[in-house]
Amino acid sequence: MTNYFGEGEAMIVDTGLERPSGIACHPIKGYLFWTELGNLNPARIERSSMSGTNRVTIVTGVSEPRSIAVDTIANRIYWTDNSAADNKIESSDLNGDNRRTEVSEPTSDSVFDSISVDEDYIFVSMFTSSKDVIRYYKKTTPIELFVEYKLDSEVHVLDLCVTGYDIQPKPATLPCDGNTCGDFCVSAAEGKQECVCRENYFLHPNGTCSIDWNFLHPPLCIIGRTHAMSIFDPTLLHYDLEYKQQYIHDFLSGERIITAVTSDIYSNMLFFAEENRKSIYVIKMEDGQIPLSIRSNISRVDGMAVDWVSLNVYWVDYDQNQLLSTSYDGKFTKVLFDDVTKSRAIAVDPSARLIFWTEETFPTKLVSCNLEGTNRHDVMNTRLQSPSGIALDYAHKRVYIVDNKRIYFTNYDGTEQEILGASMYPAKDVTIFQDFLIIAESYEPELGLVEAIHKISGDHEGLMYLNTSVYAIDTVDESTQPMVDEESTGNSSTAGISSTVFVAVGAFIIVIIIIIILLFIRRWIRSKKDQGAEEPFSSGNTCATHGIDGQINHIEGLTSELKSDAPVSTVVYSINQTIEENINTNPAHQFNNPNTIAFYPISEPHKFTNSSGFAPNVLFDYRPPPYAPPEDPGSICPSAPPL
User: Fold this and answer.
1) What is the H or E stretch that residue 12 is in?
2) Residue 262 maps to which CATH number?
3) Of the chain's two ends, which shows fewer C-beta atoms within 10 Å, N or C?
4) Higher pLDDT pick, 533 / 256
5) Where are the beta strands (DSSP E) in 94-188?
6) Distance CA 117, CA 26 (A)
7) In a domain, 146, yes or no
8) d(CA 575, CA 591)
9) What is the pLDDT of residues 4-16, one digit of tens each?
10) Residue environment code for 464-501, b if the CB has 16+ CB neighbours within 10 A, otherwise e
């Protein structure tokens, strides 16, 4: 259902239907009636409240009840029923009782189709093999045909409705006068009212409505279009269906023009830009949430992207020539560049720590920089004319660009640039799901479509037409937002971590080699002693062996200390930004790259000083205290200096 102005839709009955055909209502009694032609179950007539509740079957034993009408004066329902034997018009009271046949005639080449009533007559349309016919029957003597109109062969009656003040009486007091319903108000029994929410909205006890996020089950495509933000399953594009738009669900509607959209599946957050309100909003994809503005006074925002690791959102402002970022709560906003010329698209790869965006300079180009805004450089500065959307293939490090009808791709460093193919109509935005590019397109000023194109072959794999313009598209699925620790090797995001690990491993290997060499020297010296040979490094002075043995023992002692159960403190370098309580983030990505964890024993460090008496110019260069070998009472030599 919807209101007279088409402001939103509410699904009031969506189960147990096979082939519903006719529908009618009795607003004064608060009843809704419909006919069901059946398939696996028999044909029947059902009734519910105007809100779709209290559903009950009131008429059975029918063959093909195509249409139904309500007599609000006499409180009766009328319907048509065609069978192999005869064509009939029947009626009953509002409960299906007091049933009677009004008209019956043998089946011929004509059948009863639509029906309507007023206070005196029954109106019915019939179609034949040659011409459509409209008939009138008097209620008092329906067995006699009162009037018959034969229409021209070019005229076909699809439905029939008779209206007037007498057949649509209006109560003195309307049930919905002064209602507090958030979306729709419908009349109910005994002059009462019921509140009904739009599809995918949740009804609160006070009659207000808020988004019901329980229907969100990734994968999903989110599209921003005129008057609504909508979702659909991306696999819908591959189905062979005639009217796919019926499977699109609006969850933010009204006087909105949504020009950019992006999401974080881990934090369950959705961000979008509104052209008419000149603001950027965030909404948590949970029950009872409402959009909150995190940035106002924007100009024209056609491109947005999120860093789902550091919890920042990025966007480009076309008219103000800026690239900006802010935290998810909008408290920490930063202008990265204020010389970004006419940009309409942006994308972020948190694992590679890269931002990509377009600029309509001369020539038009694809630009990249690090997340911090450094190392800005052109990736692609040929071929492009007016790019409107970019999407990243994180696994293969590719950037896909839609430019009017053309589709390009390049790798991250721009060394490989190719034309993939073309879309059917001018593209507005693009996203990726699995092996397909999903492109939002415009084929008339107020009409749009969504198309799936294979990202390797460029083959057209499916499309869906929309009855409104579409401006932005994004995919909600974990496959489109890989975490850093899942596939982070070989890219710039882990260069610092990798080099640190290599240095640490190299230093450890050097220490092990030194220990092995010293142990070998110690064993060699002992073997020489046993043979009565002169010890190395001593020149006949037996005191020198104390120094070597002592250093070895000291190193072994340090090694055993590190392996002991000494208390250990942990230092974790993580994101230095406060995460608000109202943002339910996944702990797995509440960190900033690199995520370094350092372990060391708790002890008092001893600062190293060189022989000149001053501290060397090395930061954090701490060494254990020098080894002092024990004095040998039987020796006349001074203690050997440490190595």
Assistant:
1) none
2) 2.120.10.30
3) C
4) 256
5) 100-106, 111-117, 121-127, 132-138, 145-150, 184-187
6) 13
7) no
8) 5
9) 887 777 888 988 8
10) bebeebbbbbbbbbeebbbbbeeebeebebbeeeeeee
Is residue 348 classed exposed, middle or buried when 0-12, 13-18 and 19+ CB atoms within 10 A define those classes? buried
Neighbours of 246 (CB within 10 A): 8
With H, G, I as helix, E, B as strand and everything else as coil, classify residue 581.
coil
Q: Name 197's Cβ contacts closer than 8 Å, sequence gap at least 6.
A: 10, 182, 183, 184, 203, 209
How far apart are the C-alpha atoms of 348 and 352, rounded to whole Å?
A: 9
Residue 490 token pair: 């070989």
- Rounded Cα distance between 319 and 81, Å, is 63
Residue 93 forms beta bridges with which residues? 76
Residues 238, 249: Cα–Cα separation, whole Å: 18
Q: CA angle, 105 as apex, 104 and 107 as ends, to 5°? A: 125
In a domain, 391, yes or no: yes
Q: How far apart are CA 524 and CA 532, in angstroms?
A: 12
For residue 449, give the amino acid letter.
L
* Token pair 């961000």 in the structure block, residue: 271
- Cβ-proximal residues to 223 (8 Å cutoff; 6+ apart), any chain: 229, 230, 231, 232, 248, 261, 440, 450, 466, 470, 472, 473
> What is the spatial distance between Cα 118 and Cα 57, in angstroms, rounded to a whole number?
25
Rounded to the nearest angstrom, the gap between the alpha carbon of residue 502 and the centroid of all alpha carbons in its chain is 38
Longest Cα separation, the chain = 143
Inside any domain, residue 183? no
Express each pLDDT in 356-386 by its tens digit: 999 999 899 999 999 989 999 999 988 899 9
pLDDT given for residue 623 in this prediction:
37
**250 and 229 Cβ atoms separated by less than 8 Å:** yes
Give me the pLDDT at residue 607, please. Answer: 37
pLDDT at 479: 86
Containing structural domain, residue 340: 212-480
Six token digits for residue 273: 């830009």
Sorting pLDDT into bands at 50, 70 and 90, what band is 168? confident
Per the structure block, which two tokens stand in for 305? 């992207």
Q: What is the pLDDT of residue 226?
A: 85
Residue 345 lies in a domain: yes
Number of domains the chain contains: 1
Which of 296, 255, 220, 298 is closest to 473 using CA atoms?
220
Cα–Cα dist 87/154, whole Å: 24
CA neighbor of 390 nearest in space, from 447, 474, 482:
474
**What average pLDDT does this structure show over 541-545?**
37
Other C-beta atoms closer than 10 Å to the C-beta of 523 total 10
Q: What is the pLDDT of residues 199-229, one digit of tens each?
A: 767 788 888 887 666 666 778 899 998 888 8
| 384 vs 94: CA distance, rounded Å | 67
Residue 358 burial (10 A CB sphere; 0-12, 13-18, 19+): buried
How far apart, in whole angstroms, are the C-alpha atoms of residue 257 and residue 470? Answer: 9
